[in-house]
Amino acid sequence: MAETPFPYSETVMDHFRNPRNVGVMENPSGVGKVGNPICGDVMELFIKVENNIITDTRFRTFGCGAAIATSSMVTELVKGKSLEEALKISNKAVAEALGGLPPIKMHCSVLAEEALKAAIDDYRKKQTVK
Amino acid sequence: MERIYLDYAATTPTHPEVVKAMQPYFYDKFGNASSLYSFGQEAKAALEESRQKVADFIGAKPEEIVFTSGGSESNNTALKGVAFALRGKGNRIITSVVEHHAVGEPGKFLAKEGFEIITLPVDSNGLVDPDAVRKALNDKTILVSIMHANNEIGTIQPITEMGRICREKGVLFHTDAVQAVGHLPTMVSELTVDLLSASGHKFYGPKGVGFLYIRRGTKIKPLIQGGDQERRFRAGTENTAGIVGLAKAVEIAAVEMEEEGKKLTQLRDALIKGILKAVPDSRLNGHPAQRLPNNVNISFAYVEGESMLLNLDLEGIAVSTGSACTSSSLEPSSVLLAIGLPAESAHGSIRFTLGKWTTQAHVDRVLDIFPKIVAKLRAMSPLYPGDK
Ligand code: FES
Q1: How far apart are CA A103 and CA A35, in angstroms?
Q2: Which residue of A48, A57, B147, B332 has the fewest CB atoms within a 10 Å radius of its CB?
Q3: Rounded to a whole number, what is the distance in Å from the CA of A41 to chain B's nearest CA?
Q4: Residues B191 and B139 in one domain
């Protein structure tokens, strides 16, 4: 059974309590939906892109506190960034922005990074089709 | 904010009466029970009086009670102790898929040592079929170990039935009764067991103390060697204060257990009914009736357990979950998978366990807050199909 609720940083708890940019986006430019093979969690990230800049974001996450907080943080970090800049955001950077994650929770931040990549990929695919 | 503790299956508060009973044995009566002078003798007397109380409580003889450091040690001693004592006679040990790790892990260890471990399945309510025990017995079988009541889903096994089968075939039968002792009647003659494990802190006693009932004549090797204490079944200076506390907890249970069980059953059922009604797509895990009076385990579709647990903690409510996200292995609860739950449902499970100090007001508060937490998390879940 559950061993512990993990000791999270204040920033993690803040993003967990009041996640930013939660929800589904109408007419997104790109959507990334990824599953976490390690513990079975799912994250969905929506981006709006205008002139190569990410102008808006939304997310939905099925997962632990760290997964929700990293999702929320990544939606904040990428806003206003160009696609190239956004792609440089690593899971480590997200974790750092959150004031660190317990080691056993680092894999949850990978989910956020992958969802972002998938959303940008999806956007680019749609562009080439057009 | 009043904090509400609903994780009594993890551990219970030590009863104030227990603390009081233990107090003299730290400073005034600190003696080593093995010493011959009066300091030692008063410790010895307390020890033997405690043994008598514990023995009476389960209908055993005092010499059949061995004090240990708790449930894990009792379980380890039962499995390894019997396995190594009866190695020449056979090598098959029968257990079940829902056992606590303190039985499961020694089982794996023994498998590496050349024993054949048969792990019986359970049905969707978590019950082991006594007939499956009967069928698994062969002339190489030296031990059957089936837990009395499950710590996660609360299902109570038909121990007596399995005990009789084993006795008839002359095979030793152990039950891990850590969740049952002090909460349910556990008379060893009725259960028909040869070994029974119990732990103090699961029924308002102190942590770090428990006992193993070893029926007279049972062949068993000690796990801990190096002294004559506990009739050489368990070396080490006795934890007098802890043992006195354990005996006090047993005394309290003897008086209060029945009433408490009735009260908790009512609260449990109110909580189960209330949640299932207020939260769509939720299901009860474990046996609907044959379950511990204090156990509620429910799965909520589309949401993950740790995020529910954290939200409850923010409201001062302490619970536990079978989610993969909170296990060190990042695997969902094996007990929930064993009763046939898909991984997502195990992932979205919450266990509430009630106890002596749980009130209707606590239950009401959970019923007020919890559905909102689930709704909030569902609104942010990509798996949620929306309100129907
Ligand atoms: S999402 Fe499962 S551990 Fe974080």
Answers
A1: 20
A2: A48
A3: 8
A4: yes
> pTM score > 0.80 for this model?
yes
**The pLDDT value given to residue A1:** 44
- Which of B304, B314, B328 is nearest residue A63 as measured by Cβ atoms? B304
pLDDT digits (tens, 9 = 90+) for B187-216: 999 999 999 999 999 999 999 999 999 999
Distance from C-alpha of B190 to C-alpha of B201, rounded to nearest angstrom: 24
Q: What are the phi and psi torsion angles at B41 (to 5°)? A: -65, -35
Of B252, B281, B313, which residue sits at a domain end? B252
Pair (B181, B67) in one structural domain: yes
ipTM: 0.93
CATH number (domain holding residue B357)? 3.90.1150.10
DSSP string, B209-251: -EEEEE-TT-----SS-SS-GGGGTS-S---HHHHHHHHHHHH
Residues with CB under 6 A from ligand 1: A 36, 39, 41, 63-64, 66-67, 105, 108; B 324-325
Centre of ligand 1 to C-alpha B318, Å, is 20
- Domain-located, residue B386: no
Q: Is the pLDDT of residue A36 over 90?
A: no
Name the residue range of residue B306's domain: 4-11+257-379
> Which residues of chain B, if any, have pLDDT below 70?
387-388
Clarify whether residues B220 and B281 are in a common domain: no
